[in-house]
Design goal:
The protein has 191 residues and is an alpha/beta fold. It is built from four helices and seven strands, in the order βαβαββαβββα. The protein has one domain (4-139, 151-172): P-loop containing nucleotide triphosphate hydrolases (Rossmann fold, 3-Layer(aba) Sandwich), CATH 3.40.50.300. The N and C termini lie far apart (37 Å). Strands 1-7-6-2-5-4-3 form a seven-stranded mixed beta sheet. Helix 3 (95-100) links the parallel strand 4 and strand 5. It is globular.
Length: 191
């Protein structure tokens, strides 16, 4: 089973909102693989996922520490959602280095998001979301986009590919497409 959704998001805040909406469909054991150029919005999307899951700590790029775990915070009803394991595979140079992270040991208890994970972590889970983010290069005026500074501006095209039986009955297209009501990723979010 493989389904695909393509959404255009106008800016960084819409990308975070899309992550929050996506988080509503994630559960412990889910693997999300993010791909995209520098500045495409991978960490921005993960910030939204972290906010949607209700995890502790600032979600920032784990480029130099490779992996960071964000424990879930108690919900108003006292329950907790899954933790978030946020990995940046950009600096990894071999499958042995990926294996050394021991991601499979926490996979069942957490939502695992791996930036730059394509080609490295698919073997962790037959069921996963593969999310590609792209940004047009250059503004309408012809000015270059600064890859290191998201700055909140800039449209992104997000392609979500659902792989495996886990996603067969999850209505991602209905829930995540712009105009989907409460889950509209481009709708303003209070707070």
């Amino acid at each position: 089973m493989s389904a695909q959704l393509v959404v255009t998001l106008p800016d960084a805040e819409a990308t975070r909102a899309f992550g929050r909406a996506l988080a509503a469909h994630l559960r412990a054991g889910d693997l999300v693989i993010l791909t995209g150029d520098l500045g495409a919005g991978k960490t921005t999307l993960t910030q939204g996922i972290g906010a949607g899951l209700g995890v502790r700590g600032q979600v920032a790029s784990p480029t130099f520490i490779i992996a960071r775990e964000h424990p879930s915070l108690p919900r108003p009803d006292g329950t907790r959602g899954p933790d978030l394991v946020h990995v940046d595979a950009y600096r990894l140079g071999s499958l042995d280095e990926v294996e050394a992270l021991d991601l499979d040991s926490s996979l069942e208890e957490a939502v695992t998001v791996v930036e730059w994970g394509a080609g490295w972590v698919e073997s962790l889970a037959a069921d996963r979301l593969e999310v590609a983010l792209t940004r047009p290069r250059g503004a309408a005026s012809g000015e270059p986009v600064d890859d290191e500074d998201d700055g909140g501006g800039g449209e992104r095209v997000v392609t979500v590919r659902a792989v495996g039986d886990r996603w067969a009955d999850v209505p991602l297209a209905d829930a995540l497409a712009p105009g989907a009501g409460a889950a509209d990723p481009t709708a303003p979010v209070a707070g």
